[in-house]
Specification:
globular, 6-stranded mixed beta sheet, single chain, about 10% strand, alpha/beta, about 45% helix, about 425 residues
Length: about 425
């Protein structure tokens, strides 16, 4: 198998190099491509060949307006068009040169990912989309996309082909909940992927070498963040005197789920959750996302609290879910945790988990998601990689079945 992988960050490079090492046990050849000089430099230091996407115009382009980097303001429409054209032509050249027959795409919501996916579609290549499972040591892997764009978001019956044992699931759930009590950290908070120096390097070569721009970057904004000048502290409340409440978890302002898969923002979500709380005659409790560092967004939450009189807390998510009368979320992973705990849940935006049954949940966690820890530094189990490669083979056929609406939950493993 000849595999093409687009690497869009240093953290992603570390992960894919671990994955490639595990794939040495199989007949897999990996071709790397990136738009970022800092990533290319680090790959070369690790002894890996990698192609840097050069600026190329002229390719007809689809609606890039729906890509994350455009919706979030990282790129203008013109910049996104140039990036798409450059990546598309580079990917075509690599597919032809290296006889590529499969591709791994991280998330798939950015402009460069769209270009790679369009090449996959035009050449009928096998492809899988990957994303952090947001459960300990779990990787989300799907042939259509991630989160609300995945196959299980369209067809929950897909999970029937990934049976898991109920006793094993209860044992996993008990261990998971125990580890989460007293722990309020999240993977996004733990990991700083692209340091300012690397972003500055990428921007310099973007101008000097006519490379396509992939993100906005302000050195002044970065220095202000590093020096702590952008920190905005929201006063916190105590829950000691509040026995029951409606719980609403905030998401990072530029969360892919929020930007791409939701028509609502955090403020709209809070107002909707407040209505549920008033109808139940209980207070509304809001938890800030630990990775949120946008002073403007935090200031807006503070103003909204003065208007609606809700509580802002920092207790661990599992504890907040356990005591909640109702959990309301846009499309946060907290909603998935509420489902795992069998709590009443309202999702205000599209998710893949909102309609899952109890049997689906055990299959999702123990069989559908793969046991690969994206953030770890340890080796990846070759048996799990074998499962990933089995899903990759024949994924183009399954993708066509899903998109045509003619899918049934049979033989989904390959």
């Amino acid at each position: 198998m000849n595999l093409l992988i687009h690497v869009d960050s240093l953290q992603r490079l570390r992960f894919f190099l671990r994955l490639e090492e595990a794939m040495l046990a199989f007949d897999v050849s990996v071709t790397y491509v990136t738009t970022l000089p800092a990533v290319a430099f680090r790959a070369v230091l690790r002894g890996k060949a990698i192609t840097i996407v050069r600026g190329q115009s002229g390719k007809e382009f689809p609606a890039v307006e729906s890509c994350f980097d455009v919706l979030s303001g990282e790129l203008t429409i013109e910049e996104a068009i140039f990036l798409y054209s450059s990546m598309w032509q580079t990917a075509v050249e690599l597919v032809d040169k290296n006889q590529i027959d499969a591709c791994l795409i991280w998330n798939g919501c950015k402009t460069a990912d769209l270009a790679v996916y369009d090449v996959v579609e035009s050449r009928n290549l096998n492809a899988l989309f990957l994303e952090v499972g947001n459960l300990p040591g779990k990787l989300f892997v799907d042939c259509l996309g991630v989160n609300a764009r995945s196959s299980i978001a369209r067809y929950h019956a897909v999970l029937e082909d990934y049976p898991a044992d109920g006793v094993d699931f209860q044992r996993w759930l008990s261990s998971y909940l125990k580890s989460k009590r007293g722990n309020s950290s999240v993977p996004q908070k733990k990991t700083r992927v692209d340091f300012g120096l690397n972003k500055l390097l990428n921007r310099f070569f973007c101008f000097a070498g006519r490379l396509p721009k992939t993100q906005s970057f302000s050195i002044f904004r970065h220095l202000k963040r590093e020096l702590g000048l952008m920190r905005y502290k929201v006063p916190l409340d105590s829950l000691k005197s509040i026995p029951k409440y409606v719980f609403f978890p905030l998401q990072v302002t530029k969360d892919t789920q929020l930007v791409v898969n939701s028509d609502l923002d955090n403020e709209s979500g809070i107002r909707a959750a407040d209505e549920y709380a008033r109808n139940l005659n209980v207070p509304l409790v809001v938890k800030l996302h630990p990775a949120e560092d946008n002073p403007g967004a935090l200031n807006q939450i503070e103003k909204l609290r003065e208007e609606l009189k809700f509580y802002v807390v920092e207790e661990p998510v599992v504890q907040l879910i356990e005591r909640a009368e109702l959990v309301v979320t846009l499309n946060s992973t907290v909603g998935l945790e509420a489902k795992l705990m069998a709590k009443p849940l309202v999702t205000l935006s599209p998710t893949y988990y909102s309609s899952l049954r109890a049997a689906d949940m055990k299959n999702l966690v123990l069989a559908y998601m793969l046991d690969i820890d994206y953030f770890a530094k340890t080796s990846i189990d070759v048996h799990v990689v074998s499962e990933l490669l089995q899903r990759l083979e024949g994924s183009s056929r399954r993708r066509e079945e899903y998109l045509s609406g003619g899918v049934s939950a049979t033989s989904l493993r390959g």
